[in-house]
Amino acid sequence: MIQEYNNILVPVDGSYGAELAFQKSVAVAKRNDAHLHIVHVIDTRAFQEISSFDTSIVTDISDKAKSNLDKYTQEAKDAGVKNVDYSIEYGSPKTIIAKDLTKELNIDLIMIGATGLNAVERLLIGSVTEYVTRNATCDVLVVRTNLKNQLIDSKKIKNKNH
């Protein structure tokens, strides 16, 4: 029996790894005639440290995320994905991706980019990808290669993220 996925979640954050995960999620959603949900999670905990918190910062980030998500949605539709939508969420990316949205949207596959963090960074701040793979209640596919199944160059990831 071939596994078919009905509801696919792909988190995007502007990184090279997330871009590759998005590209592969489009192909999988199309093959499975699945619903594709694209999510960008704005980690509001990062703003708690700013003493003179300005709400325009969150507004600017939200506007940029919406613009990117509109482009991703159109790209998926142009590729033949019939059922695609997106959301912008606020809070902890780890729990929103692994638990909240999975349950809320009845997700059966999360496709997420491999982390660009080194061992020390993962130890100090943790990896969203690592957390999701250990705590999600559905299948998780960690994307490490491009559409030609070529391994991602970790230097390329770092350069795209900075």
UniProtKB/TrEMBL annotation:
Lineage: superkingdom: Bacteria
First-listed, main subcellular location of the protein, grouped into a coarse class: cytoplasm
Keyword terms, alphabetized: Cytoplasm
Keyword Cytoplasm attached: yes
Keyword Cytoplasm in record: yes
One GO cellular component, as annotated: cytoplasm
Compartments where located: Cytoplasm
Family matches, as InterPro entries: Rossmann-like_a/b/a_fold, Universal_stress_UspA, UspA
Sequence ranges assigned to domain UspA in this UniProt record: 5-144
Cleaved signal peptide residues: none
Protein family according to the UniProt entry: Belongs to the universal stress protein A family.
Protein name: Universal stress protein
Organism annotation: Fructilactobacillus lindneri
Lineage of producing organism: Bacteria, Bacillati, Bacillota, Bacilli, Lactobacillales
